């Protein structure tokens, strides 16, 4: 178990961590969350004895890290995946750590297989990608088969398969009764991995509770209700009925209603009594990200702003109108609409240039002439039907190319002219 009591760390006039107290218990994955600059990395460094606290104490199993006998066999950590000599092979790096801690060499090969680096064990780490470096750092943390593990952003640079593997690894380690402390900025991953959360902001404790309790305490569930778009009067009628029943109704950008204060069965009954037809009635539970953003919005030190592009916009030509804003753009869940289409004409990409280096030859990968590819004069099967009473519009035919002029034979040379004039 990790226990911090009144932990404080100052660097000159800057206080990185102030009076921080918490416990990380075995048997569960504890997530360590906080905005950039909140003191997470400083706290983890003090746990591992890399930084001395200005005041307060932090212990692992009742002892400071520096007083633990053979600490690498009891505590494994990944704080910086780049803390490896680039000219040293992966296996050599792990073997040197094992020899310093009295760990048998066979364990090196075991952890290399666990993290999936057995095929590159003899390659120098300077050629590793970010994800491979993360795997090597995790292997170093697992080397001594410790009971306490600390990971700082362990999934950075990993592909989806690697992220899933790390998630399952954390859960398996905790299921064995180990203490697992994980710092991450990926809220979606923490929601799937962590059982308990410790949240700090500006060096101070903001929350110490389970994931479920954290979401419930920092968010409000609501119901999403939608009426037929072609009958806006029904939406107004339903909104009035819900408000009179004690609900709180807010319109959303897509025309739906966000309702709080009323359970779903009650909303359905009120809509039935008001003779309002519903297109949607769905519950919505806030995500960990929403709850986290709500709690930490006052503890963020680095905030981005909208780029005003001052002085970079070209002046509009005389008589031109500025572009209209796209409704919903920039909001969660908004996606750009598909490109505009003419009636009966599907969107097509520009024709690639031809030639030995200008795209696939005819008949390859669906290019013109490929088996199953539509011919130039074939009708479009996805075209909209022509209105009744009007003949279908035939596809425009390209103009016939003008015949090339016949090549004429060169004129015979005049023997009376000198060679230089010919």
Automatic annotation (TrEMBL):
It comes from the Bacteria. It holds the Pfam family ABC_tran. Residues 2-227 form the ABC transporter domain. The keyword Ribosomal protein does not apply. InterPro entries: AAA+_ATPase, ABC_transporter-like_ATP-bd, P-loop_NTPase. Keywords: ATP-binding, Nucleotide-binding, Transport. Residues 362-381, 403-416 have a biased composition (Low complexity). Residues 311-422 are annotated as: Disordered. The keyword ATP-binding applies. One of its GO terms (molecular function) is ATP hydrolysis activity. Residues 315-326, 382-402 have a biased composition (Pro residues). Belongs to the ABC transporter superfamily. This is ABC transporter ATP-binding protein. The lineage of its organism: Bacteria, Bacillati, Actinomycetota, Actinomycetes, Kitasatosporales.
